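dumping this here before i forget
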Amino acid sequence: MMPGASRTGGAAGKIAIVMALALGAMLAAADAARADYRLCNETSYVVNAAIGVEAGGAVATRGWFEILPGRCRVVVEGPLDADKYYFYSRVPNYYDITVTRFESGTRLCVGSSDFLISNATECSDPSHRLERFIEVQPKSRGADWELALAEEAEFDREQAALAGAQRLLGMLGYDAGRIDGVAGELTNAALTAFAAASRVETTDAASAELYRALLAELKAKQAGVGLQVCNETRHLVWTALGIPESGELVSRGWYRIGTGECLRPYKKALDGSAIYSFGEAVDENGPIISADNIPLIWDGDTLLCTQSTRFNIDDHEQCEAKGMTPTRFRKIELGGARSWTIRYTEPR
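structure:
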């Protein structure tokens, strides 16, 4: 059985996209000279956001808006005179996390790359997919509006910018200390070392130049190593993987992959021997049934243990006796390759 798609919690005034998810209301800012709708990122992650606008019964969506930690971005210019506004966000797949999604809300279309969809309740383009947006109700307290995205640490914007830089520095191998948004000796030394190595002229964590350099270095480091999994079907796919590590075969899951999406769940170099995969296409009613009246599943002959919730298992003997599920994984011979892409496609 595939795991649940999301969890939600509550916190007034903000939407938490990482760790603990919270639904909140739009915050009004007292700047009567403007009438814009801004998204502000108070997390330690780069965020890709999408919005939905409903007017006269029709809904349009637009994205993706990349928002760096500690920064804001205008997503609607002018007065907020539509009937309803919706919000959805994701974290780029270069991070080692799976972001919790909203378990309820309005299902609207998004694209894999930048998009503007006029009839967003029906995904007529195969590259589009449905995601659950939450409705956000503006309050009439001023002309300018903000939506703040937060995480459990409750950073302010200055702290979020620094915490985001600390996170990226750590992913690049620098010892920047704790991800706490505090400029201690380790963080300052790591910023100085990175700036010198990458020939960036600033160590200011609020600088877009520094972030662009950090992200470019991270993407270059991750390119050509590890494992990428792509969903080239019309359906949502849940996948689990088996990867040899330190002499053990470790199964991990579940990873949620939307239509047209690719994930990088394993960012280290593979050992060149073999990897294992299991995938299942689902919708809100359960497994997808193919034209041949069978579930749309990608499996094989190797039995590995899994669980219905997220798991990391290195012992695959007597799965059922340990309360686990024996699952048939497909073995993929790597032939010495240090990186690989698994593609889930539909039968032709």
